[in-house]
Design brief:
heterodimer; A: 370 residues; alpha+beta; Beta-lactamase Inhibitory Protein, Chain:B, domain 1; 2 domains; four-stranded antiparallel sheet; 65% helix; B: Rossmann fold; Alpha-Beta Plaits; six-stranded mixed sheet; 14 strands; 36% helix; disordered N terminus; disordered C terminus
């Protein structure tokens, strides 16, 4: 292979990318991919709007209170305290409701109980105190800026929706159509009539698909991060980004998104050449990825999610009481190191691309059988 | 137009015992061909294997058996094959959203040419097929004839040594047809290999140097039209003889063992003969002429593709 040949191949790859990008970005049948990519952005926007609304309400309650409260003040209230003790600590409640309630005491005997709900706030966190006949019966504290919980929520959405569904199906839609779509349109011969190696064409198409999916899903990932940070106060945002690894996590999520596009893209490229109906391979790959935690170690390695999970920066804890089989799906019991994960996913993608290159050489133009 | 420096010495398009099956359906069977430069026509009814033969020649399908080589290049090497070959297919589909110019330009960029060269070459070929006015319009809005011409432009764009054209005259108006025929002839005159498939036998007859007759996936005859004729010993030759005493000539000719049929021309000024031995007939005719029958003219009455074609494959679909 001479330098001149490499130069021509690169020029050809660029020509393929130019043609494919236009088709991929503006194809009507690909509109759903934008929607799938935008769903988590909408989710975090809705969360940010809801959280901002709650923060405004908290601030308003705090302003109306008799005292400037701290989080410690809110935590000082304990069940069994009297109304007077609560008011002594927190002051007169800025928001209070009271009503009468008939409580059954025994068979056919009821007693009228005075119920009261107090709402206090330190401006960020809210305390809801429930009293019955002047004694604290229930306490509910809602934390405002709980970055730890928020980042676990973000990780959950990323791992269980964005990676396993959005990117998975987005790659399916784009990569499977790179060859299959043109066979259905009966226009693949345009490429096959050009003086271009089939493998070079395959690489060009793969890179075009990769650029398109990366552009769509990395943009989505960045917008999710922006939406996720929206409701944080500037100071909390700074703390999260620069002191709590927020920026590092965001960069890792972008990297994982790109690797997911590489891995799933390579899988679906070869699947699109081997199968006429995309539903069967998509279902097979989806099931394979889903049952990955239950597979023997050697088989786990032939999966994309196995490596991606190991790269995700935030471990998602199983909620208490989760059935063991579900907990196995949530937790990453057998993580690999980041370099191994990156190399692993690249190797899996290269194996799939090699299979594609063999298949593309064998492809014939025979539209009538499609 | 030039063959690459490292091109193999072979200067023919060669099919060696080539068969192609689509599952259980026969495409072509046991094809052996060696196609020289010039215009070669593939003639046969629908389903006879013309397009399959072209697709085999261009690597769009692979042979189930045998070997195809184009000027020494393997057909599974598109990088080199399509540097010397242009194929105008019958597939009437184009990449979506492209104008005529973009279609040709993209094709040239795919072959690795830089933007400026590709643009110049694209405009040149668009001009050759008379599509300059429509070049900036989306192909989706083209008429059938315009789509045919833009496909031809794609095949011609990189000045190939081998032109493979599947029904290239379909959908063209008479003026465009004659322009395209002139274009094919010019290419052949420059040493190009022009392979054309067509159902319109009279057009093929006029422009072809060679003809390959196909029927049900088999090559039933190949070569120059006259040679094809010569290869078919059983096929009687029809000869029209204009003479002064047609009835006398007819009687004499019927004495010849090779004469099958003699008909007096309706104007009573000639004889239409069918003979299995044309050479013997011409010798005998010389003798008759010396015996007082004035022969004004002698002309083969059926030395065209149509008659050979009809004889070989019958008056099937596609014969016009």
């Amino acid at each position: 292979m001479t330098r001149g040949t490499t130069k021509i191949w690169w020029a050809q790859i660029q020509a393929v990318i130019r043609l494919e990008m236009k088709k991929t970005f503006f194809a009507k049948r690909g509109l759903w991919i934008y929607l799938v990519a935008a769903l988590p952005v909408f989710l975090f926007m809705a969360y940010a709007v809801a959280t901002s609304g709650r923060q405004h309400q908290s601030a308003s309650v705090a302003r109306r209170g008799e005292k400037m409260l701290t989080y410690q003040d809110l935590m000082a209230v304990k069940p069994g305290m009297t109304r007077e003790e609560v008011v002594a600590i927190l002051g007169k409640p800025p928001v209070a409701f009271h009503w009468g309630e008939n409580r059954p005491l025994g068979p056919g005997v009821t007693a009228n109980v005075l119920r009261e709900d107090y709402h206090y706030s330190d401006g960020q966190n809210d305390l809801f105190v429930g009293l019955a006949d002047g004694k604290v019966e229930s306490i509910n504290i809602q934390n405002g800026d709980n970055q730890g919980q928020d980042s676990i929520m973000f990780a959950g959405v990323f791992q269980f929706f964005f990676l396993r569904l959005a990117i998975f199906f987005g790659c399916l839609g784009i990569f499977m159509n790179l060859f299959r779509g043109e066979i259905l349109d009966r226009s693949l011969h345009f490429y096959f009539l050009a003086p271009i190696r089939r493998e070079v064409l395959m690489v060009g198409k793969f890179l075009a698909g990769l650029l398109a999916t990366c552009a769509i899903f990395v943009t989505s990932e960045l917008l999710q991060t922006v939406a996720f940070l929206w409701h944080f106060s500037p100071s909390a945002r700074e703390v999260y980004l620069y002191h709590n690894h927020g920026l590092e996590h965001a960069a890792i999520y972008v990297g994982v998104t790109i690797l997911a596009c590489v891995g799933y893209g390579a899988f679906f490229l070869v699947a699109g050449m081997l199968f006429r109906n995309p539903i069967l391979p998509a279902a097979a790959i989806l099931i394979w990825e889903a049952i990955n935690p239950f597979l023997p170690g050697i088989l786990k390695q032939f999966s994309v999610i196995y490596y991606l999970k190991s790269l995700c920066p935030v471990e998602i804890p199983s909620p208490p009481g989760t059935p063991p089989i579900l907990a196995l799906l949530i937790s990453n019991t057998d993580p690999v190191s980041a370099p191994v994960a990156v190399v692993g996913i690249v190797v899996v993608a290269l194996i799939a691309l090699y299979a594609s290159s063999l298949q593309v050489r064998r492809m014939e133009i025979n539209y009538t059988t499609e | 137009m030039s063959i690459p420096v490292n091109a193999p010495a072979s200067a023919r398009i060669v099919f060696e015992d080539v068969s192609k099956f689509y599952g259980e359906i026969l495409g072509v069977n046991r094809v052996n061909l060696s196609i020289p430069p010039g215009i070669t026509s593939l003639v046969g009814p629908n389903g006879s294997g013309k397009t399959t033969l072209m697709n085999l020649m261009t690597g769009l399908v692979r042979p189930s058996r045998g070997r195809v080589e184009v000027l020494g290049y393997q057909t599974n090497d598109p990088e080199h094959l399509f540097a010397i070959l242009g194929y105008s297919t019958q597939f009437d589909a184009f990449p979506k959203g492209l104008t005529g110019f973009q279609f040709i330009y993209s094709y040239l960029r795919l072959s690795g040419r830089d933007a400026q060269t590709a643009e110049q070459m694209a405009w040149r070929v668009i001009e050759r097929v008379n599509l300059v006015d429509a070049a900036k319009r989306n192909i989706a809005g083209y008429s059938k004839g315009m789509r045919q011409r833009i496909r031809l432009a794609q095949a011609l764009a990189h000045d190939p040594k081998v032109l493979v054209l599947d029904e290239p005259l379909n959908g063209l108006d008479p003026l465009a047809r004659s322009e395209m025929i002139a274009l094919f002839r010019a290419a052949a005159a420059q040493g190009c290999y022009v392979i054309i498939s067509s159902h319109i036998l009279h057009e093929v007859d006029v422009i072809s140097d060679q003809v390959i007759l196909l029927s049900n996936g088999y090559v039933v005859a190949e070569g120059q039209i006259a040679t094809v004729r010569g290869e078919i010993q059983e096929h009687p030759t029809q000869i029209l003889v204009r003479c002064t005493r047609p009835r006398e000539l007819a009687a004499k000719m019927l004495e010849d063992a090779h004469t099958i049929e003699v008909t007096i021309h309706k104007d009573e000024k000639g004889v239409l003969l069918k003979t299995r031995d044309a050479d013997g007939f011409y010798l005998a005719l010389n003798q008759l002429a010396t015996n007082g029958i004035d022969v004004e003219s002698i002309a083969p009455a059926d030395d065209d593709v149509l008659s050979v074609y009809e004889y070989l494959i019958g008056n099937e679909e596609g014969v016009r």
